[in-house]
Amino acid sequence: MTDPQLVLTERVQQALAAAFGTDYADADPLIRPSQFADYQANVAMSLSKRLRRAPREVAQEIADHLSGRAEGTRGDAFPGTVEVSGPGFLNITLSDDWIAEQTAEIMADPRSGVAQATPPQTVVIDYSAPNAAKEMHVGHLRTTIVGDALARVHEHLGNKVIRQNHLGDWGTPFGMLIEHLLDIGEATAVAQLEAGEGNAYYQAARAKFDSDPEFNQRARTRVVTLQAEEPETMRLWHIFMDATVRYFNKVYRQLGVTLTDDAIAGESMYNHMLAQVCDELQERGIAVVSDGALCVFPPGFTGREDQPLPFMIRKSDGGYGYATTDMATIHYRVQDLKVDRILYVIGATQALHMSMLFASARMAGWLPDHVRAEHVQIGSVLGSDGKMFKTRSGESVKLLDLLDEAETRAAAVLAGRDYDDAARAEIGHAVGMGAVKYADLSVSHDSEYVFDFDRMLALTGNTGPYLQYATARIRSIFRKADMAPATATGPILLGHPAERALALQVLGFGSVVDEVAEGSAPHKLAAYLFETASVFTTFYENCPVLKDDVDPATRASRLALCALTLRVLETGLDLLGVPVPERM
């Protein structure tokens, strides 16, 4: 355990138990960074009423047990000093020797203080999930990159991650989509779908469905043969889907996400389970017929006039909907994949549906208590006008067009730098994708944010390019020193406050990664990395590394701090899926 905040939490809890009894051992010490010391613990304020003692008196007793002044305690066991301040705050300052020692341990650890999950879990992450009948738009950006960041973090912790791309690839619209494919020819349809013109394709099919009775009837008949999985219809369905998936993969490659065809688990995968889902729920009395539809009524969900809200798993016409497929999905993931945790990275607008899904699945016993199912709610992407991000004509912005523009603008930011065309294109891609992804991941996933290229691509402030530039600047130090970062091993000396602050900062990396996984909160890792880059900037400005007047021991220590900071930044950015160019 190297995170100072976690170490102090454990030590203060031990002092609480020693001072006031084991009943107080699990109290939250309320340790936070402080401007008056390294950390401040406010636990005495929260415990004073319970102990019926003045906060300052409580704080003093805790301090005495931490510092060794209380009988039977050892002051040398505490990694610093503690003082009582104000009405009962504990100001804690860590010793430079302890910080240096812990930093050396982090440097020797190839995982930079990130512990492996014990025991490892099987985690399903359901993300991206575009509709096969439509092209990907900016609304798919957040579900794709937030889900991918969470997948990367869990894998880094040693969990078994099962990515699930729950494509909308089945249902009644496919009748008209397949018939339109026949009308325009397979080659034309494939070319249009591979180019990402899914919306135009869909709109053309829909227009014929609404205006041409003969086409309408053919489409309805085709739905029947699709549901029966008639071989020729399935061949046509595969042509449509394969072309669509090739387009999706083009977007995924440009974004640099880890989704592959192996992750595809679309609605079609569960088609054969739907009737059984309904039959089992009805036979067990969990689902009942209401107004001709088969519904589950999970407790606690009410609509108008406090009437129970139905979770409809079979429509009155016998058709199935999202609820049916989602119930089958949970059953499969728990029973067949043996998951410990399921993360649904889906829009916040689906909150009610997801809550009713989890409640219904628990009623059925398909989602046991030991399995965590969570809705990672995704907020909307807004334009500069504060409304949903759209083109000037009011249409959704194509995701591929948005990514292309990001690369073009990034290349413009790099204009004038001494790079050949290939290097400029490579760096422009990394900076453009990094800017878009980091801007999204740096805000809480359930919050809305304004899409603003100028802000995203800025080389200053809390942006992807700023963090990429920080790593490039550290690499330039090692190029000038003519050495590899891995060869800089210290030992660590903390003679300047900026050195101390940087060492203290990097010690928190492991616990931040744990926190991201536990709370599905990539923005916390982004905030930590930005703070790390900012602290490094202060170090860089105040602590010369390669100047001739720097003595060898100080130089070795500062190079080691640079190398460790580089490793933490690069690892953290990789966990977010943000590419790191060698130069900028």
UniProtKB/TrEMBL annotation:
Q: Where is the DALR anticodon binding domain?
A: 467-584
Q: Which reaction does it catalyse?
A: tRNA(Arg) + L-arginine + ATP = L-arginyl-tRNA(Arg) + AMP + diphosphate
The yes or no answer to whether the keyword Cytoplasm is present is yes
> Residues in domain Arginyl tRNA synthetase N-terminal?
6-94
| Spans through the membrane | none
Q: Can you state the subunit structure given in the record?
A: Monomer.
Which family does this protein fall into? Belongs to the class-I aminoacyl-tRNA synthetase family.
* Protein known as: Arginine--tRNA ligase
Species in which this protein is naturally found: Streptosporangium canum
